[in-house]
Specification:
By secondary structure, the protein is mainly α. The protein is about 65% helix and about 0% strand. The chain has helices spanning about 20-25, 35-55, 65-75, 80-85, 90-100, 105-125, 130-150. α2 (about 35-55) runs antiparallel to α3 (about 65-75), α3 (about 65-75) runs antiparallel to α4 (about 80-85) and α6 (about 105-125) runs antiparallel to α7. The protein is globular and about 55 Å long. The two termini are about 30 Å apart. Residues about 1-15 have low confidence and may be disordered.
């Protein structure tokens, strides 16, 4: 049986204004039936969002996977917070791109490389022990390799 890959959401995303349509936002919203499960998803979403925001400041903690996790949790726990995340001009298009095409925009990938370089180089200058510097170089290299493996979709 041949496996087909089809987009789960329509192609009406406006890349210039970075605005998602209503159908794109609601396309992934699947609230859980149980109020207790929705509360747990909501708590998980806020925890993931907290770690994602913390990842902006800390060099080792990744931001994007936590934002994607927060979107997934909010999609099952809270329409209000899911919409806020998806309507955000920065996070919305990145989440949409990942959920639809399993890729990240080229400009985002360039920013990731710049931020990784800045944070790891500054951390290397701060630490005094040689083994810590070597560890940071190794962790940074692994992180860059992992980011490099994520596909970039060609603009159509």
């Amino acid at each position: 049986m041949k496996k087909t890959t089809e987009s789960r959401l329509p192609e009406s995303f406006d890349a210039k204004t970075k605005v998602l349509t209503e159908s794109q936002i609601t396309g992934l919203l699947k609230l859980h039936d149980s109020p207790m499960a929705r509360m747990l998803y909501l708590a998980g979403g806020f925890l993931a969002l907290f770690f994602g925001i913390l990842g902006i400041l800390l060099p080792i903690l990744p931001t994007t996977p936590f934002i994607l996790l927060a979107a997934a949790c909010f999609a099952r726990g809270s329409e209000r917070f899911y919409r806020k995340l998806m309507e955000n001009r920065i996070t919305g298009p990145i989440i949409y791109e990942w959920l639809t095409y399993h890729s990240i925009p080229a400009r985002v990938k360039r920013w990731v490389y710049v931020l990784i370089t800045l944070s790891f180089v500054s951390s290397i200058f701060i630490v005094s022990e040689v083994w810590q510097k070597i560890m940071l170089v190794m962790l940074g290299s692994i992180l860059v390799f992992c980011i490099w493996r994520i596909p970039v979709r060609k603009a159509q």
